[in-house]
Amino acid sequence: MRTRTASRSILAWMVAGSTLVACADATASQRPGAHDGAPAFAADADRTVVVEATAPFAFSPDELAIEVGETITFEVVNVDVVDHDFVLGDEATQQAHADDMRGMVGMDDDETHEQPNAVSVPAGATSTITWTFSDPGPVLYGCHEPGHYEAGMLGTITVRA
Predict the structure, then answer these.
(1) Is the model's pLDDT at 71 over the cut of 90?
(2) What are the phi and psi torsion angles at 81 (to 5°)?
(3) How far apart are CA 80 and CA 53, in angstroms?
């Protein structure tokens, strides 16, 4: 009797686990900007691109060209005296991150940048993010510290086939 109960428990856990994995996969594929690519290891980068976060609310460069399949390490250097962040993704991803930031006022940067496509870049610091670009088309990068994106702190990556 005990073996049958244990077997049923294991089977129930396996079904529940399969359901959770299926839901997680569906959520990931529906996540805004998921088609833009995926995080990668810095050791796998094809090249490093330095992007400066500058005053008043700008990225330099604000336009980049990348090939489909290319893995880039972005070295984001904050030469400004205020904190910035760097978020990769399409317009829906940018909007979702902006909404998250508004909902997390008063939290520290680690709590607001737990997404694989976003890093905080404190004043005078450098942060990195490595990303593999999977599809052709535009990908944005933006800063969502309060008012920065709205002031034009964004850039465009053209991913070429």
Answers:
(1) yes
(2) -95, 0
(3) 7
